Amino acid sequence: MGKHSRPGPPNQPSRAVPRVDDGDPLAAYTKRRRPPLDVHRRHRPLHGGGGHLRPSEPRALEEWNGFSYEFAGTAANLAEAQKWVNEQSSGTTGGPGTGTRGV
Fold this sequence. Notes:
By secondary structure, the protein is of the alpha+beta class. Helices cover about 15% and strands about 15% of the residues. It is elongated. It starts with about 25 loop residues before the first helix and ends in a 17-residue tail after the last helix.
């Protein structure tokens, strides 16, 4: 394998460069603003550790704003946090626990 060759099958396009739609001049910009792995909402344990551990502890809720994840509220436990993550409509800005932002 050469110094500058990319790994993987030669018949697949590189994933390093985003595909650009010729009809949309902002397609590359729009693709860069997508969240990592297309996860718009996520939850994290308040006291660290794995997300699946200690399901009765509170969780911090985070939402993608186009540039980074920002705090959206708290959930009392893992089940509440998963319910918030899986909601289709995000009509409220706060989480189910506090409803406060920027704390």
